[in-house]
Amino acid sequence: MALRPAPFWLPVMVAVSLLRGSCLGASSHSLKYFFTSILEPSQELPHFVIVGYVDDQVFSYYDSNSQRMKPRVSWMEKMGKEDPQYWDRNTQMARGNEEMFRGNLEILRSRYNQSEGLHTWQVMYGCELRRDGSRGGFHQYGYEGRTFLTFDKETLTWVAPDLQAQMTQRKWDGLPGRNQYLKGYLEKECIEWLEKLLSYGNETLLRTEPPVVTMSSRTEVEDGMETHVCRVHGFYPREIDASWTRDGEVWLQDTFHGFLTPNTDGTYHYWISIQIDPKERGRYRCHVEHDGLQDPLDLELKEPTDSKSNLWLIIIGCVVAALVVVGGIAGIVVFFNRRQEDYNAVPRRNQAI
Predict the structure, then answer these.
(1) Taking all residues of the chain, what is their mean pLDDT, rounded to a whole number?
(2) First to last CA, the chain
(3) Are 244 and 272 contacting, i.e. CB atoms less than 8 angstroms apart?
(4) Is the CB of residue 32 less than 8 Å from the CB of residue 52?
């Protein structure tokens, strides 16, 4: 039977829990890979996808329909010019991973005593180069949208949450050479690749765009309290400090934080809201700091002009946009294989579980 793309909602459901935690956090720049194999009841073979991210930008993509690793941004054309065999080599490694993932899915279905139904096997890994110069790295496996194994690169061991995963944990912990290789990849080679990719896409990835800050407000009919929303839009890079202050001090009470999400042009938007007594309006400010601003911004709260303003439409729109972004990220599937004799962006082939 010919493979067909998995429905968009499937990766969203199975990947969100795996993404939560390891992928989130404020790093200056990051390189992440997501691999996913999805087996639907109507399919004979799983659908397989690999996606590579620099920060929040997809730069490479592979799926079981095209059977090719392809660039997704124009600046990756430099890679093909420097290394004409790069895309062919990574295509072959991706096909090898697809076969390995297919076999691992069968092993897991047997291990968990499962038959028909929807089943997913995922891997995500990557590294971070933070603003303060520190480095981070992670390597994590997930089955059915839940964590299966997590690599602890400090102890060179794998952490398993259940008995079925512990079978693989014991096997992999018995391979100290492989675990040492993974630690070296995450701490050194992955960072080197991140820096190389940043140099390719520097006009996009290293640019600075200042935020545009706007305020909206409304008066609550029930109690006369005021709700104010501070929207921060169109900024890059993603690191930003937006907060409410009261009498010059950060104020967390009665505040609500939106999602930090990318726009279609690669910039970001964010919003925060607060509910206050209108008698104290003059004490509050929306405080914003960003690399694109020469000086921090402090915006005063204005008196609501229309109690039927579109404030809540703004909030709803932001939430919907965030959910779309989560879906897009969760739909990403990547794992990389890297041969030690070749300097590629991918670790060597994944092992059978």
Answers:
(1) 83
(2) 26
(3) yes
(4) yes
